[in-house]
Q: What sequence folds into this?
């Protein structure tokens, strides 16, 4: 199957193949993990399967509250069918609690609650190390229009509220996350939708009681098993690959 399909793009954690219909792609989740712009790398068995499931879960949830996404349906353990979009070359980060680069850049201790959610933009360019940019740069260089930016901020904050709530329900604090946005064209107009993936690879998730990290920082900072951390997130959300026998979906008792 995968061999016959044409590869459209290969990134660090995913591969995109031509989809079965025009305007679609198949997104394949690899087990590869990278950090520090590819300086640290490893293969984490099962990560791709977990992220495929988790991204499906979050994208479906977003769709159910009216936030448009590229997700169409999951095809198998590692692949999902998605809409083809024109990716806006930005990493859109929303932060609720200080951690990672904002802590370093501004000297705010990790774990400090921010006064309000902060939306940041990074220019997607590995060679430049994804530099922080402002709306001024984005509009001046034509990466997105003012209208796009207003829509992107609104979308990012809706994703933040949704994801924070979902995580709160299972005892996890959503510290920050990254999303990517795509354009889909309808005649001469375009709409913006959530693209790429939403998974523990692109979020910071801390257990609310213990502070334990349940995200890619486990890999970045060598804190233990990444698969165990992601499996714990999936287990709490009731999302687990069907071949795992101890799945604990809530069951209704009549
Ligand atoms: N992030 C990501 N991809 C990147 C950079 C960051 O998914 O290329 C996510 C990261 O997992 C975290 C959030 O965006 O949830 C903010 O990351 P930060 O700017 O603190 O950078 P980092 O400390 O990860 O270098």
A:
């Amino acid at each position: 199957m995968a061999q016959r399909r044409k590869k459209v793009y290969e990134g660090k954690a995913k591969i995109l193949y031509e989809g079965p219909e025009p305007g679609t792609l198949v997104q394949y989740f690899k087990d590869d993990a990278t950090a520090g712009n590819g300086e640290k790398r490893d293969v984490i068995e099962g990560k791709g399967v977990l992220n495929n499931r988790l991204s499906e879960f979050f994208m479906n949830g977003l769709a159910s509250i009216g936030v448009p996404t590229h997700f169409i349906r999951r095809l198998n353990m590692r692949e999902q069918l998605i809409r083809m979009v024109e990716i806006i070359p930005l990493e859109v980060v929303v932060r609720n609690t200080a951690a990672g680069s904002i802590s370093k850049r501004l000297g705010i201790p990790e774990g400090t609650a921010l006064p309000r959610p902060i939306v940041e933009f990074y220019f997607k360019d590995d060679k430049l190390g994804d530099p922080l940019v402002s709306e001024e740069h984005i509009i001046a260089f034509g990466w997105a229009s003012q209208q796009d930016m207003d829509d992107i901020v609104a979308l990012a904050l809706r994703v933040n509220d949704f994801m924070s709530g979902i995580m709160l329900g299972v005892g996890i604090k959503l510290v920050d996350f990254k999303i990517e946005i795509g354009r889909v064209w309808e005649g001469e107009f375009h709409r913006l939708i959530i693209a790429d993936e939403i998974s523990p690879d692109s979020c910071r998730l801390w257990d609310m009681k213990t502070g334990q990290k349940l995200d890619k920082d486990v890999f970045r900072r060598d804190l233990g098993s990444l698969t165990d951390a992601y499996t714990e997130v999936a287990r709490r959300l009731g999302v687990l690959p069907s071949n795992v026998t101890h799945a604990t979906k809530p069951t209704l008792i009549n």
Observations:
- Residues 146-168 form the longest helix (23 residues).
- The chain has two domains: 7-85+226-246, 86-207.
